[in-house]
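Reading a protein record of the kind used here takes only a little practice. An example makes this concrete, so a full record is given next.
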Amino acid sequence: MKTMSLMNKKWLLSLHIVFSAIMLGTSVTFLILSITAVSTQDSVLVLACYKAMHVLSGSSVRASLIGTVVTGVLLSVRTHWGLVKYNWIIVKEILTLIAIVLGPFGMYVWTLKGITLLTDVGIEGVNQGAYVTNTVYLFIGIGLQLLSLLAMFVLSVFKPWGKRKTRNKVGTVVRF
């Protein structure tokens, strides 16, 4: 595939950064809303936090994730980086899979379950075991999401580990 011009690369990279920033900002918002939800006894506020997280998980999280993945793949295949030439890119791809599972799927399910639990009986009558379990899953998901996103930002800046080593048919190590 033909590589892109420097100007097109800059525009695509700018889009990639914008989508990534939206994704990180939404994850931080999830953290703030979830801390608010567990630190209050106001059932209306708790339900509002869960509803806000649920809306974000179905909109902003999905849109930013799709935008980030599409622009990231295009940057990889249309520039010299490639999809599997560098170890740091492979690690980013693995972290992206984690973000895909946690973001639009995990957060969506856990916030919907929280809304369902709270809507049926309110915070006073909620099944504490199910609610606490769901909240723990949500916190773990948010933490892992934030860690994976921050790790991807760091990897993008420092680009550690260099090119992958491969072996040719003779058995000598060559680089891509």
